[in-house]
């Protein structure tokens, strides 16, 4: 509330301790996308609730909080969504050059069925009404806000020892129908969650030769846009 006293509205703005900073950066630098290395161990409800609460505390434009979280555990529903993924994955493989298709198909993407929890994070594009503070000139800000919720969840999951895989190779309209999502609600992320016993020291796609991390210095411009160096 705007008329709150300072004691009610503000907390201390001190920096994190060295240990707290190290923990935060560890979560950032060691987070990995998990494709199929999930253990059958269930994710306890209290752990899942902490992850969702972390996501729910993401920043959002106009404090509109446009996200919803669809938790999917049912095996038959996950099998159906996996079939949607398989169809889209074959379409995707055909888009790459022949010399890349074998490597693409070697990347295991079985998290939908192996992970004990699937999670669909959506953005309700009508939440907050027609005019939302901060979205008046950029209507995509609700989607960007929801991506912040996804990132919060990814980092919290890393801290909890939970692996997360982001499934993007699926047609949104098919997924929308499978989960009875109304047309005014956009799908932002379909995630697979579960415990893992190990994770890659570097991103799996880098380890397997798909692509390397770009040098940070090549991506930083001063004052205005500059022509970036061609990625290797």
UniProtKB/TrEMBL annotation:
Catalytic activity: FMNH2 + O2 = dialurate + 5,6-dimethylbenzimidazole + D-erythrose 4-phosphate + H(+)
Gene Ontology molecular function terms on file: 5,6-dimethylbenzimidazole synthase activity; nucleotide binding; oxidoreductase activity, acting on paired donors, with incorporation or reduction of molecular oxygen
NADP among keywords: yes
Alphabetized SUPFAM superfamilies for the sequence: FMN-dependent nitroreductase-like (SSF55469)
GO annotation, biological process: cobalamin biosynthetic process
Domain of life according to the entry: Bacteria
EC number: 1.13.11.79
Entries under Pfam families matching the protein: Nitroreductase
Enzyme class: oxidoreductase
InterPro entries in the record: BluB, Nitroreductase, Nitroreductase-like, Nitroreductase/BluB
Nitroreductase domain segment(s): 28-195
Keyword vocabulary terms for this entry: Cobalamin biosynthesis, Flavoprotein, FMN, NAD, NADP, Nucleotide-binding, Oxidoreductase
CDD domains: BluB
Assembly mode: Homooctamer.
Family: Belongs to the BluB family.
UniProt protein name: 5,6-dimethylbenzimidazole synthase
